[in-house]
Amino acid sequence: MPTPFPGMAPYLEQPGIWGEVHTRPLVAYTLVVDYKRPPTPPLSESADRWAESLLHSAGLR
CA 49, CA 46: separation in Å to the nearest integer? Predict the structure, then answer.
């Protein structure tokens, strides 16, 4: 995919700034998710079984 900024690559030119753009939201998201409560909106039956087994194997349920 071509850069939306012709003639420059912001990520490469300022890696100290752009690195947080990718990691900070992910860290914040995992801190606020309550894995013990059912998801909203509810999952389909097959997706719910998959999520339950994944959470159980990770020790989160």
Answer: 5
Q: Which amino acid is residue 58, in one-letter code?
A: A
For residue 43, is it left (φ>0), alpha (ψ between -120 and 50) or beta?
beta
pLDDT tens digits for range 18-37? 666 666 666 666 667 788 88
Q: Would residue 3 count as lying in a domain?
A: no
Better pLDDT: 20 or 51: 51
The label of the residue with tokens 């030119």 reads 13
Residue 51: which domain range?
11-57
- On whether the pTM is more than 0.90, the answer is no
Tally of domains in the chain? 1
Q: Residue 40 corresponds to which amino acid?
A: T
How far is Cα 61 from Cα 55, in angstroms, rounded to an integer? 6
